[in-house]
């Protein structure tokens, strides 16, 4: 009987402590997948993103965007929602993958081994070539 009491108390304390840890931001619980403030999961730095956005807006203004990055190449909303960091590309998005244009590739850091920079629906995407897991995305707001 005493063991059950102790076990119940330990369980209650551990549940209470895990809630406190998450509430103060130091817990290791699941994060919202749309939380873009989680810098630990991104490959591209803020500098890379800013440079790419500047490049994009300069080319967009002059109507000199390479294939795959023009406004007409945007994904429909249903496919757009499937493009997520740490998500696996479904077959419909794999078909939309295009090689990253050389002028874009030169501005990006080299991809990790087994990964490649590709363009999908107006976004630059770092994807694992064997598992199709998305490592990072540079979204271009229009």
* Alpha-carbon Rg, integer: 21 Å
How many DSSP-defined strands?
4
Number of helical segments with 4 or more residues = 5
Q: In sequence order, what are the helices and strands, one letter per element? A: HHHHEHEEE
Instruction: Report mean pLDDT, rounded to a whole number.
Output: 76
- The appropriate CATH architecture is Roll
Predict the CATH topology: Nuclear Transport Factor 2, Chain: A
Describe the protein in words:
By secondary structure, the protein is α+β, with helices and mostly antiparallel strands. It contains five helices and four strands, in the order H-H-H-H-E-H-E-E-E. Strand 2 (115-120) and strand 3 form a beta hairpin. Mean pLDDT is 76; it is low at 20-39.
Brief summary of the model shown:
This protein has 142 residues and is an alpha+beta fold. The protein has one domain: inner membrane protein cigr (Nuclear Transport Factor 2, Chain: A, Roll), CATH 3.10.450.160. Helix content is 35%, strand content 13%.
Task: Give the key terms.
single chain, 142 residues, alpha+beta, Nuclear Transport Factor 2, Chain: A, four-stranded antiparallel sheet, 4 strands, 35% helix, 13% strand
What is this structure's SSE topology?
Blueprint: H1 2-23, H2 46-61, H3 77-80, H4 91-94, E1 98-99, H5 102-105, E2 115-120, E3 123-128, E4 134-138
Antiparallel strand pairs: 1-2, 2-3, 3-4
């Amino acid at each position: 009987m005493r063991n059950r009491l102790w076990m119940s108390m330990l369980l209650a304390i551990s549940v209470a402590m895990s809630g406190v840890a998450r509430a103060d931001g130091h817990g290791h619980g699941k994060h919202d997948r749309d939380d873009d403030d989680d810098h630990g999961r991104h490959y591209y730095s803020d500098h890379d993103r800013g440079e790419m956005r500047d490049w994009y807006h300069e080319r967009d203004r002059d109507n000199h965007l390479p294939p795959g990055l023009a406004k007409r190449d945007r994904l429909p909303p249903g496919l757009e929602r499937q493009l997520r960091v740490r998500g696996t590309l479904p077959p419909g998005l794999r078909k939309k993958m295009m090689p990253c244009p050389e002028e874009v590739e030169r501005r990006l850091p080299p991809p990790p081994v087994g990964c490649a920079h590709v363009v999908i629906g107006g976004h630059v995407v770092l994807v694992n070539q064997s598992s199709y897991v998305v490592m990072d995305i540079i979204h271009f707001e229009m």
